[in-house]
Amino acid sequence: MVDDPRRRWLIRALAGGWLGAAWPRVLQAAPLGQVPAPLGPEQSVFRVVGDVRVNGEPADRQTRIGMDDHIETGERGELVAVVGSDALLIRRQSSVQLGLGQAKQALRLITGAMLSVFGRRTRQSLTIHTPIATIGVRGTGVYATSEPDRSYLCTCYGRTELAARGEPGAVEQITATHHDAPRYVLAQPREGRWIVPAPFIDHSDLELRMLEALVGREVPFTITDDPYLRPRRDY
Fold first, then answer.
1. Which end of the chain has fewer CB atoms < 10 Å from its terminal CB, N or C?
2. pTM confidence score
């Protein structure tokens, strides 16, 4: 995935917010500076950048997102939003169909990428569907992508159950505390395996902390370092 300079800016701004005393002035002066905090009861959108559509209509900070809405982002689009007890960061060129009402408790990541934190479900788990994978989650943080030949899933913390749609018997239970077991779920098996280990990619602890702050929670670990904040070396 292309390294977006706006994302790097936001991560540095958030780092200033949580790791330094001068963050209010930094965020106040910056064009994207918004302090992550629980949204008001009439507000769904924390940040919208570029072409973002909800049910086909252009989205802005006043857009209300319903439990069963369809969200699409364009080439330079990105959305950070809250739906009930869940918070979502939907990356560019993504299509997400929500189904968070009591009857469904599911969503479909049709294309693209999404970082999410979910409130704890007491009666039933939430299911994320991609064309290739089915992911059962219960009160956890996950980063998922949907590509033509594979789906990526990082259980950032909490519990998930991964299943390959191409082989119902290919199932893996994951319990993670801090990005312990990223996985690819494949459209076609590789050496007989449908679910294989994957690297940690394209999301950060500070983004997770931002999302949890929007629903009044904290991440269940201490942020002491982040690869996007380290000095970059030239090789």
1. C
2. 0.82
Q: Identify which has the larger pLDDT, 12 or 216.
A: 216
Residue 125 contacts residue 107 (beta carbons within 8 Å): no
Q: E strand or H helix at 17, and its extent?
A: helix 5-19
Angle among Cα 65, 66, 72 to the nearest 5 degrees reads 55
Q: For residue range 34-49, what is the model confidence (pLDDT) as tens digits?
A: 678 998 888 999 999 9
Sequential DSSP letters for 84-110: TTEEEEE-SS-EEEEE-STTT-EEEEE
Residues 197, 172: Cα–Cα separation, whole Å: 11
- SS3 label, residue 214: helix
Give the C-alpha separation, 179 to 193, whole Å: 21
Whole-number Å distance between alpha carbons of 168 and 161 = 12
The rounded distance, in Å, linking the Cα atoms of 161 and 154 is 11
And the tokens for 47? Answer: 């940040």
Buried b or exposed e, range 82-115, using 16+ CB within 10 angstroms: bbeebbbbbbbbbbbebbbeeeebbbbbebbbbb
Q: How large is the C-alpha radius of gyration of the chain?
A: 17
